[in-house]
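Suppose a classmate hands you a notebook page containing two proteins, each written out with its sequence and a corresponding row of structure tokens. How would you begin to make sense of it? This section walks through that situation. The first entry is reproduced here exactly as it would appear on such a page.
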Amino acid sequence: MSSAEILLLRHGQSEGNEGGRFGGHGPTPLTALGRRQAEATARALVAEGGLAAIFASDLPRAMQTAEPIVAATGIALRTTPALRERSVGVFTGMTFAEAEAAHPEIFRAMMQRDPDACPPEGESSRQRLAHVGAFFDDVLDLNIVEANTVGRTLFVSHAFTLNLLLRRLLGLADSPSVFFRTDNCALHRLKRAPTGFWNVEALNDRRHLIDVR
């Protein structure tokens, strides 16, 4: 088994984030701040070098975050619904208070990290984990990462989905009490040794955003 390095990037601030609303599969775009965060991330990744592949959620806020990185590196962007945020169904676009008022029991179960809690017309965290986990395994199995042992692969996704993926990689998939915070345009950095073990290099890395206001 060869080595691999992955970068897990959350999208920049979206209009939904700014308004404190559920994004889900909605088309909420980046704010002006979110675009600046994406541009700062692109500059940092170019300065680091070694990026070999870019995958992103096909939702607007993720693709808009990937765009300046693609433009700066010349690496083709591959989008997939597997990296989408969890679908929150009818909660999409609602504030937390509105969602709680509309469906208090389901909202409470979601806030308690029940893996099977499912908003009407949405999906559970267990279902979302199955999608993103299968996709991630396929990327490794197809040697898209392994063929570039000196390169790095970037995955642009969403806070909740990245939390699920991190928990799965670190053997914590059945520990809903563990939540990995991911700020807008923050990076999680991991390396897989030839032995197959994942080494965590950094979590919620925001150093490249220090001058973004």
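The notebook's second entry, a different protein, reads as follows.
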Amino acid sequence: MHELDGKVALVTGAGMGLGQACALTMAEQGARVMVADLNDEAGQETVNTIEQRGGTASFVRVDVADASAVETMVKHTVDTYGRLDSAVNNAGIVGDGAPVANESESNWDLVMSINLKGVFLCCKYQVRQMLEQGGGAIVNMSSVMGLNGNAGGVSYAASKHGVIGITKCVALENAQTSIRVNAICPGIMKTPLVDGLISRSGGAFADYAITSTPMARIGEPEEVARTAAWLCSDAASYITGTALPVDGGFNAQ
């Protein structure tokens, strides 16, 4: 039996990277998956892959910074599959990192609107649905930069710290409602974004990733995805309000 047999899962930012890995893994674990993304083509490709592997999935376009779009996303999930058992709020951006003296307000506002407001809105409407149906599990995607600082990354780090704050508050609000809320804090993972950083740096970023990580390797998206699926499963029934690093030991330093 798979961990998520009979469950309905919603994954934002599921068109690529960690979100795509989460959608694929949750489908493999038996969930019917609503793939949500701003990019129609990428989202549909994830749906096609799930279906080719024998799973069940649908696509919904969403801008997580738009309240009405997020509300519609949750409603569409319920209209399609009857309920919402688990959600992975993964959609996010890095933005244009700069020292605080040079940080633009426009970059700050953009990063906060997607990374922080987006998670707030997703939790708001997901919790409303889960309260109606009697329970559920939410996983918010933070980062090791939600637990640490990073020179030149004030917007991103602040947004990811905020995701952990949202997670703890929503978990406490719902600790007796059968709704569990947790965060994952990935380290440097092998995603298209990181591949681009490696390419643009001539391989220097890969060297940094390996030397700064105690396990001396870049993580695989599936390692985050399996963690998300587990946190959404009944196997994690006594876990809520935590921020779990999946980082090869980076945060232990």
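A careful reader of the second entry would note: The chain has a mean pLDDT of 96.
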